[in-house]
Amino acid sequence: MMAPSLYASLLGGWMVLALTAVLVTGGALALRGLLAVLLLVLCGMGSGPSPDMARILTGCGPALALCVWVFGPRRGDGVTPREREVLPFFLSGIAVLANAFGRCDLLGAFLGCGLVARLGLAIGPRGLERDGWQALRMGLGGLLVAQGGLFMLQAGWGHVQDQAGAILLVGGLLLACGVPGRAGLVAPGWNMEILAVLPVLAQAARTWPVLLPALTFMGCVCLAWAVLSRQGRSFPAGYWAGWAVLAAGLPGGAMGGLPLAACLLVMACITPWGGRLSGSMLWPPSLPGMAVVLVLVGEMGEIPPVALLAGASLWPVMAARMGAGHDRSEWGQASLLLAIGCMVLACAAYYQMGNGW
Amino acid sequence: MLVLLFGVLVILSLSTSGGRGGGPVWHGACMAACVCLSRWTQGQVGPACVMAVGLAGLLGVLGAQMLHIPAAGRERSGLRLAGGLACIAVLAQAVMQGPQVDMTARLMGMTGLSAILCGVWGACIARGPVALCAGLACGLDGVMLLAARADSMLVMAEVIMAAIGLNILLATHPRSHGGAA
């Protein structure tokens, strides 16, 4: 376990190094892969031998998302401007930093940096484009609302006021992350903010327990939004965001934040353009179903068969992936999901043994 | 009492002007006066006052820029007014409950929160960039009020940065008549 200041300065050094290297050399695949793996290793070492396995998994989320983006399939003609290549590196570095600090009042500053980077890329010869204005509306508006809610929580005026503040804080942060519907503007690094925000919120819920019902409520709202939105515009990440918010609202039991870590890891691994959403994603024996079962695992940490059920529910996803096509990247993604599921299950089993014996 | 008066002024003037140049200037001036007065009554006139006045100046520049950009066709001010009033009603219910100890602090908090919610509401239903920026400027006023109440320099600096960013964005927006592009 490194000291937090050393970790933060190492991360800052990584960000400067990555931005300079990619901007100057144009970013060959080997260089970008090396930088992404370096960040992953750094994340793993930073939260390394800490007793909480779920913390490590959560902390590695942004770095894993960066790895998936770097090694994933290129979309479109493959010619992207150099600045657009840099954006995921910058966003993931910021997300890891926000995770490392883990303070709610610094989230505004970090998310603001990300928003500035996005807006700076969206400025064209005719001013901001339409997507840019939309990002500004959602990002800055959400940050303002979240800041107001945070002030209300810090003032500590009473229970009802704290509830209002918690709803404002959670809703504003989710709006700033673009969770309800960013289907139109899927950019590289689209999931970095939510990967940083949810662990910090789950950590802040220890200080303000009133955040937990607010998180559950907003998770249900996100799920309803994803289900009720039109079929053509929805994409699976919306479901996973809803599940992750729900998992963040769980009271911390014996399993720690394991359900949240599982949902965040899956969010880090899926790519938004992986194809249209099939109806089977909605029902329990599938990928979101695994989240339900993991939530059950988190709730009832003493029952091993539930963990086995979670493993079994992974199978239909594999079957659907196999039937979908013979694309190599699809296979890679499916096996990555399977590996992560096994890792989470191994963690669960480890906790069981640790608790039982 | 003056602080209360100015708080009510800000609330009343929140939703009335949508997308025109005068609105941000008026709100910014009200906010700066509110912050400075509350600081003055506490007897600590410091950097918070300077930052509030600076934000008012930046919002004034924003309003001057808006005068040069024609506003979008439909501003839907009626809807904005209704939404803003609903926000204020809800917040008044939530914040004003409990023992009425420090009325001034609570009213300042409510004013800031209603400014934020009205501004974001206005920005959410705005069509054109000008109305969007006006709504967000309104929200910045609210955050500045709350930050002055909570004495947090970090948030004040962020608000100033955001106002500068809004100015830059609106300056890059092309103008259809007069002015350089």
TrEMBL record, chain B:
The chain crosses the membrane at residues 48-67, 79-97, 103-123, 130-148, 154-172. Keywords: Membrane, Transmembrane, Transmembrane helix. It comes from the Bacteria. This is Uncharacterized protein. It comes from Komagataeibacter europaeus. The lineage of its organism: Bacteria, Pseudomonadati, Pseudomonadota, Alphaproteobacteria, Acetobacterales.
